[in-house]
Design brief:
Blueprint: E1 15-16, H1 19-44, H2 51-71, H3 82-98, H4 100-108, E2 112-113, H5 116-142
Parallel strand pairs: 1-2
Length: 144
């Protein structure tokens, strides 16, 4: 009779998001979703010193995109998929340069991979938080 074994956290290397999950979550949820995925991977890879930098960059990029569209009117006429695509490309570049090789080693050691559906949920969460933040910024700007 097979027995179920539970991996304890000391012997299990951890869970990470792969490129497809990063693409999906970033395209749906923008820079904040990308920040969450990259920060989670850094935490799993024991590189916690990079997490604050990721979050500051994600928030700064979100604010930059919000104000860029507001202050450069021709950018408001871009197709809606362009800013998410550019954000996903940037997040993918960061992933490739800072995490990919270590993630491959972690997976070879038995690390787990989050599903793409979890990436979708992260994207939806990031989109909701971004939308709420942009509404607050707009209300502040309008003087409410």
């Amino acid at each position: 009779m097979p027995t179920n074994t539970v991996l304890d956290s000391a012997s299990h290397p951890g869970w990470v998001y792969l490129e497809k999950s990063l693409w999906i979550s970033t395209f749906i949820g923008g820079p904040l979703a990308a920040g969450y995925v990259l920060a989670t991977n850094f935490r799993t890879l024991d590189r916690a010193e990079r997490i604050p930098q990721v979050w500051v960059s994600a928030v700064a990029l979100a604010l930059f995109l919000y104000y860029l569209v507001d202050f450069v009117p021709p950018l408001a006429d871009l197709p809606g998929f362009v800013p998410p695509l550019l954000t996903a490309l940037l997040a993918h570049y960061v992933f490739q340069r800072t995490q990919l090789s270590e993630i491959n080693v972690l997976i070879d050691r038995g690390g787990g991979v989050y599903s793409k559906w979890r990436g979708v949920l992260v994207g939806i969460g990031g989109g909701v938080v971004s939308f709420a933040g942009f509404v607050v910024l707009e209300l502040i700007r309008e003087g409410y």
